[in-house]
Inverse folding.
């Protein structure tokens, strides 16, 4: 194993989810083979080449690929090819998470390793026989590429990567917008947490105050490599708008059944668990509650 990790979600202030950038050295692994009891992981390949190892089967991966690992499913890891492998990994955080490393017999409950011994599972992994990557299997259903997916019928320019790869608890979309276009209308969530990563071009992030407060939005410039974290329950609507060259953005979001999304312009409220949309009456906030 040999990789450089950047804990981007932690740096950006995520709460219930995480996102890391992992740059794996040529010919090396990112982690020991492992699986999760609660967390769902989504990988997006930024660059390089390599392989996805899943339950003794090996699949080639390339830039633009999305790999989805559901909770309680296959043991998995990544190995870089000759040019290294650069990936983003998004995951849901659970305080009761249990991780399993079959080669060292280690179990992770929450943060600590609980293997009933004093040695480190990473050290044990280093003494095991190398994984075999001799036979490449046909592409698995949990791996899809941007080029293999058609645009979403209701959102031209957007492609549902994780949903196509079988995700359950979260979603990952790739979206391209022309100059000046919004990624989405200004909105905020009560329970869903969202992460945005600028892959191409530039733009701005607009943060709109609640109607009660009024006023103009805060505007923040966005460039390639920028990450925006929007935790739930802030009451501050957000909107990403493409710059003069347009942009391409990854959007990651949890699927919380109790979530309500509020669109500030129209007053519409989407109640996810019921699958219905309601509209707020116009209120004169100056009269108080």
């Amino acid at each position: 194993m040999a990789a450089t990790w950047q804990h981007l979600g932690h740096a950006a202030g995520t709460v219930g989810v995480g996102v890391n950038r992992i740059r794996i050295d040529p010919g090396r692994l990112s982690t020991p083979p492992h699986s999760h009891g609660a967390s769902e992981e989504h990988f997006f390949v930024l660059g390089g080449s390599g392989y996805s190892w899943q339950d003794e089967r090996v699949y080639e991966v390339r830039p633009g690929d999305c790999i989805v690992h559901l909770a309680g499913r296959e043991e998995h890891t990544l190995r870089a090819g000759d040019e290294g492998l650069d990936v983003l990994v998004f995951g849901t955080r659970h305080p009761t998470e249990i991780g399993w490393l079959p080669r060292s017999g280690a179990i992770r409950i929450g943060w600590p390793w609980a293997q009933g011994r004093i040695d480190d599972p990473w050290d044990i992994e280093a003494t095991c026989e190398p994984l075999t990557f001799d036979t490449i299997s046909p592409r698995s259903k949990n791996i899809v590429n941007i080029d293999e997916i058609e645009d979403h019928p209701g959102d031209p320019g957007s492609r549902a990567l994780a949903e196509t790869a079988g995700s359950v608890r979260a979603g990952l979309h790739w979206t391209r917008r022309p100059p000046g276009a919004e990624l989405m209308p200004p909105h905020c969530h009560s329970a869903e947490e969202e992460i945005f990563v600028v892959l191409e071009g530039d733009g701005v992030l607009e943060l709109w105050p609640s109607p009660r407060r009024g006023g103009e939005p805060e505007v923040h410039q966005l460039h390639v490599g920028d990450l925006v974290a929007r935790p739930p329950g802030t009451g501050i609507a957000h909107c990403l708008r493409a710059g003069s060259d347009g942009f391409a953005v990854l959007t990651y979001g949890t699927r919380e059944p109790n979530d309500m999304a509020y669109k500030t312009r129209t007053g519409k409220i989407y109640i996810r668990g019921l699958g219905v949309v309601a509209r707020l009456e116009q209120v004169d906030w100056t009269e108080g509650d």
Summary: DSSP finds three helices and 20 strands in the chain. Residues 3-144 form a domain with the Jelly Rolls fold (CATH 2.60.120.10).
